[in-house]
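agent: user wants the full assembly modeled, not chains individually. Plan: 1) parse entity lines 2) check alphabet per entity 3) run joint structure prediction 4) return tokens. Steps 1-2 passed, three entities, 1264 residues total. Proceeding.
--- entities ---
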Amino acid sequence: MTNTMKTEKVKKPSRIRITVRNDSTFLQQGIARGVTFLIAVAISILFLWMVGGNNPFQSLVYIFQGTFAPVAKGGLSITKLNAFFKNFVILLGIALALTPSYKMRFWNIGGQGQVLIGALACASCMIYLPGVFAGMLSQDATKDLANALIILISALSAMVAGGIWAYIPAFFKATWKTNETLFTLMMNYIAILLVELFTNIWRGQKSAMGLINQSSHIGWFYTIEANAGFDNKFITSSVFIPLILVAVLVATTYVYISYTKHGYEINVVGDSIRTAKYTGINVRHVIRRTVSLSGLLCGLIGFFIVSNFDHTVSTFSDLGYGFTAVIVCWLSNFNSFAMVGYSALIVFLEKGAKNLADSGYSANLNEYSAQFIVFAIILGVMLGKFFMRYRIHYTFSRKHLVKSLTSGLIEEIEEENKIAKEVM
Amino acid sequence: MENAIELIGISKRFGKTLANDSVNLTIHKGEILSLLGENGSGKTTLMNMLCGLYYPDSGTIKINGKEVTISSPKDAFEHGIGMVHQHFKLIEVFSASDNIILGLKEEGFFVDHRKVNREVKEIATRYDFEIEPKKKVYRMSVGEKQIVEIIKLLYRGVDTLILDEPTAVLTPQETKKLFNVLRKMREDGKTVIIITHKLNEVLELSDRVAILRKGKVIETIETAKANESILTDAMVGEHVALHIDRDEPKKDDEVLRVEHLNCTSSQGIKLIKDANFSIYGGEILGIAGVSGSGQKALLDAITGLRHSDFGSHITFKKVDGEKEELVGKTPKMIKHLGVRLAFVPEDRLGMGLVGEFGMTGNMLLRSYEEGHSYFLHTKKPHALAEQIKDQLHVVTPSLETPVRKLSGGNVQKVLVGREIASSPRLLLTAYATRGLDINTSYAIYNLLNEQKRKGVAVVYVGEDLDVLLALTDRILVLCDGQVTGIVDSRTTDKMTIGRLMSNNVEVKHD
Amino acid sequence: MDTFITWFTFAVVYGTILSISACGEIINEKAGHLNLGIPGIMYLSGVVSYIATKAYEGAVEEPLVIVIILLAVLSSLLTGALIGLLYSVFAVTFRCNQNVLGLSIAAFGVGFGKFLSLVIGAGSTTYPKLAHANDIFNAGLPFLKDLGVVGDLFFNYGFMTYVVIIILVVAMFFFRRTRIGLNLRSIGESPATADAVGLNVSRYKYIATMIGCSLAGLGGMIYVMQFSGASWSTNNSIEALGWLAVALVIFVSWKPIHLLWGAPLFGFLFWAYAYLPNMLSINGFTGMTQIIQMLPYLVTIVVLIINSSRKKKENQPPASLGLPYFREER
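--- prediction returned ---
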């Protein structure tokens, strides 16, 4: 039998304690976020200075010019802006697509796979459909109609493909509570390998796949914009329609989550499965529907990537944003308007770092230096969220300690824990 | 008698509520002390400070005359104090013995399973426990789990054991066994503190009883000099003969008939065994039983949350006299049939309400589907929330404040208010007053009686027999999934119900 | 037969990398941390160990064997531990979402690793092979390796392969037989219970995460030193191996000892495309590579589904995986 240790020495309670703030004002929250963000920026500048030497603020100018580059004639470089908007649209689009899933606390980290499979479906439509519509395409009268049909079918099949890719893990989650994080992660790799497989088939003996329908431009969504007859360089650029679409998506996502019956069901399921069942919500159905919707929208983004921007497909079609979008989504607290800001910030930094590397300003600052800055800022925002919700107590003496132990409540977290455990 | 533990001027505050108000309490060595008090009287909080889960805001704790600081459960163990909580803290996938030695430094780097199993057996024989050291916890019944918890403490050499409502989950037989074990521990020189609100247990088991009310120790009495009425008076303060207005039931209109109801869990355990009964409009039917006797399964089966076995029948008679079979239907289908059924579940925030939503959002839970539009209509729910807030005096900063931030009583008012607002034919309630103060409890009783007068069939699942006897018209007693009797509340007594509750001797799954 | 031996050896070397990284992830998950940052940790640790070893080989005429081993091993362990520390600070102390944190670390590790390797490459993208390190990390077991086919199949690997096997066995005993292993498992199952018996939950989480991450870092080092023959390339497949390691954890149901066969099996499947057609004397069709490479992921999905449908308690993820823990007050 064990002997009880009747030691007089009792371990001191921790000097640092963390409690929930329930009473933080809007101003306090702003300060917590602002200060931590500034710290992250300061660390980034320090990094640029230490690694790049010279004047870190000169580096910042190059970073700024990655998106907003002045041109000799005056004004800004449209090319750079368009490159920025392309990435921005893709990142924001995926983040918005994932939002309904996350609101329901379904950890879909398969955005990458769902986008890629959509892109693949779109690409195969662009490759095979011209053969199907050959008759129509050969006649001037029906040529445009055929092209429009091909584009429409491409978009639809991309959405269906993305939806199915998300439906599979959702089905098993709904049926057997299969862990969705790990499942969707695996689905990413299968999608990547499928893309690799088909690009290998399509390229045949060539070293690379090249652009699809390079000469005929069949299935190129972008041509619609380019041929619309506007004189404005921005409107005729490939980012215009996607930007409008994504702006609409920001608003509809917000409305969908907050003001529709579907959105209400998503919120209830996300809060407590048992409440949802009690209310008569068909939880399995809601899970499958919502996650499929996420996949569907991811597939749509895949369509835009292939048909509108790249006119080809590769394992890197999603620009690696499948995961970044998860981060954007969470940093924004699933608020679609905040996602606009975070997406822009991340793309801005990446473009900036690329510009910094290309400028030859410092041999050490290559295009990957953005990774450090983005990481610092993500951590900064996380820290800001933490300070917004919690208060840290630090005590210097035992006496103060006893006092400090009295304040604060952790019930909020407890509730959160309970809910988290409950989500299937 | 020697003083084992002295609590002097202990206070603890949670936010705005004072859970313990300068409590003084002395615990003698080798005694069984009962802490008696209603729900929310601060018994558990006080003991949590003794076992290191909370830290007191002020006051001192003395053990064997020396002042000590207990800031973690580990500190408490080092002073020989350990507690069995109401919710067991066991690791499901571990064996009993692994749970028992968890966290012990003295075991050395390697775990000698054989030695541990042997020592666990030794403790078991000494105090008459039955335990299989190698059995995984997830395969155990509640009673077995409790035994693991107690042995866990004894193994650690704890000489002061605190048990929080130990009998709430036990059958009478298990309770009897537990009491024998506790008496053996006392003979062995151990100090036992049990937290309870059951008077008979206090009288049967303990040497002394400390009565708490509103966070204060009101009185400490030797059990030999106490009886039920003295204890009740001390516990509730002024003499409150449980007097709940009760009209004669109408009992002519059979709202629900349950025939041959059988329910089986996904693990194949029989939860309800051939239940047959009816519920009439204008009566309150009480359901009594040791917790886990099938109350939840019964309500879930009626509301469509659980599948009933083949051959079960639950017939609901609508206002127009049309009868609907509820077996095999989901809650949604039942709702669409026009069956007006309201349900106040046991877990208010986890099942009845959405913690993140405000009152308005929670009103929507019952009605969000209304209308053909794709969008939510919030006008009516908003008005309803407003109405409930005024009529039931719900204290909330605004209708949009997340309900999880409200106090327990207000949360329950929101839930009951919403359910009654749907003007049901059948109102099911599960532990509707658990954790609420007396005033709110009475407010709820009144609401139920009002429904009864309106001709609603009300089901009240409760744990407090006094309340059941005073509030309801008939009491259905469940024991291990079986209806062991339906008695008239006006003519029966607690003893009868108690016997029915423990009717079935052979118990528990596995 | 020769083809099979080559296939087998590739599978074992990949298995070595996968099993040590997966073992690191198991330790993470047993502490309740679903650390998705493993690929990044492996990548960054690989770069760091390459840089450290290169610096030493470049600076000294006659590099000492022991110094090279220590430099490579310790630098990767330390890199992993530091990221593990960062992860713990944010996941335990600052209560951040583990998925988001893990994915950020995965992205950061790979990105920053590429950043570092471009910096040391100083613009050029060719990275010299470190001759000494290659010799040391790829020497088979003396005498035993000359035992013909048996020697080729089992004893002709760099010493890290055998170290990893020992680590796996130790890990098994650690979880099954030791008190600390028992305690650690309780943290991942139910931190509240662990807290109630006086275990310092945060400390366990910190230390387990740091050890787990440093083992993953070791995996990155083995990739660079043993598999790549102490050379570096920014477009290697460390990242893919990292995700495969995460999948492997599910495949072996959180039991380190099963990695002994599970990891080489994944290695087999990974390399099947290169050797299987040859062995069966069939011409691989286009896309066969990818179809075969899909197998590990497909198998993992099947295992995931089967485990979740059978609900056998022993094969489930740690109960509190991915959830933050706070001592419950009130």
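agent: reporting back. Chain C has a mean pLDDT of 88. The CA atoms of residues 139 and 163 of chain C lie 14 Å apart.
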